[in-house]
Amino acid sequence: MDPAALGAYLIEIYLISFPEPVRYSIGWYAGRVFGLVSGSLVLFVLLYEITMLYAQLLRAVLAQRREREARLITGDAVAATIAHEVKQPLSGMITNADAGLRWLDRSTPDLDEAKAAFKKIAADGHRAGAVIGSIRAIFKRDARSRTSLDINDLIGEALVLLRSDLQQHRILVQTEADAQLPQVAGDRIQLQQVLLNLITNAIESMADEDGPRILSVKCEVQDGGVMVSVADTGAGIGVQDVGRIFNPLFTTKSGGMGMGLSICRSIIEAHDGRLLVAPNAPRGAVFQFILAAGTPASAAAS
Ligand code: ADP
C-alpha cells in the first residue's frame, strides 16, 4: 500500500481509538479527516495503478497489431514482387513455345528452328528460377551472390531478351559505352532485372506515341563508378507523378502492378547506388543509376 495512505490510516486509528475522543471534539474531527484522507488516497492510488495497467496493455496490443500489419505488408510486397518479376520470363516462355509449335506445324517442319525455340524456353525457365532465388536476396539484402560484372554484357543480354518487344513496337535501339568502363560488383540476376524493368517501361511508354521511338542505353564512368542511363522518347513523366513513381503499387497503366520501379530502387540501393529519373530532351524520360566500380568484398578477400 502507498506509505502516505498507510500513515494517514494509522493516525486515524490512533486518534479515534486511543483514548476514545469526545464526539465533535478536535480529536474526533481530526480522526474523521484522516479517515477520509487515507480512504481517498487508497482509492486514488488504486485508480492510478489500474489506469497505468490498462495503458500498458493498450500499448502492448497496439505494438502487436503494428507488428502483424508490418508482416502482412512485407508478405504483400514479396508476393507482388514475385508476380511482377516472373511475368517476363513466363511471357517469354509462352512466346517461344508458340513459335516452336509454329515451326513444327509447317508442312515441312523446321526442326532446327523448333529446337532453338525450345532451348529459349529452357533458358527462360532457368531464369524464372534464378529470379525467384534473387527475390529472397532482395528482401534479405544478401550480398553473397555478388560477382564482378561487365555492365555492357548485362545490357546486351537484356536487349536480346526484349528483342521481340522492341521489334514489335518498331523501336530503334542506340547503345553507347565508354571503352574504359570498369567492372562493377553486383548480383547479376538482380541487375539484369533492373535493366529489364527499365527497358520494358521505356518500351511501354513509347508504344502509344507517334513520332520517332528511340531507346538509348548509355554507360559512362562517373565519380569512379559506372553510370547507366536508359532514355526513351515516350510520353515522359508528369510533374504530379515524379514524386510517387517509385512508390510500391503506384501505376498509371490499366494492367500495371506498380512494382517495377520500387523493385529497381530497392535493388540499386542494396548495391549502394541511387536510381534517379529526369526528363529526356526533347521528350520522354531518362532513368539513371550509378554503381560503384570494383570486385565484391568476398572475391577481394580470397
Ligand atoms: P508499372 O510498370 O507496373 O506501372 P512501375 O513501378 O514500373 O510499374 O512504374 C510505375 C509508373 O511509373 C508507371 O505506371 C508509369 O506511369 C511511370 N513510368 C515508369 N517508367 C516510365 C517511362 N519510361 N516513361 C513514362 N512513365 C514511366
Judging from the principal axes of the Cα atoms, what is the shape? elongated
Helix fraction by DSSP (H/I, runs of at least 4): 55-70%
Q: How are helices and strands ordered from N to C?
A: HHHEHHEEHEEHHEEH
Number of strands: 7
What count of helical segments does DSSP give?
A: 9
Describe the structure.
This protein has about 300 residues and is α+β, with helices and mostly antiparallel strands. It has 3 domains: about 60 residues; about 60 residues; about 160 residues, Histidine kinase-like ATPase, C-terminal domain (Heat Shock Protein 90, 2-Layer Sandwich), CATH 3.30.565. Helices cover about 60% and strands about 15% of the residues. It has 9 helices and 7 strands. The strands form 2 sheets. Strands 2-4-5-7-6 form a 5-stranded mixed β-sheet. A hairpin with a 5-residue loop joins β6 and β7. α4 packs across α6. The radius of gyration is 35 Å and the shape is elongated. The model has no long low-confidence stretch (mean pLDDT about 85). The structure holds adenosine-5'-diphosphate.
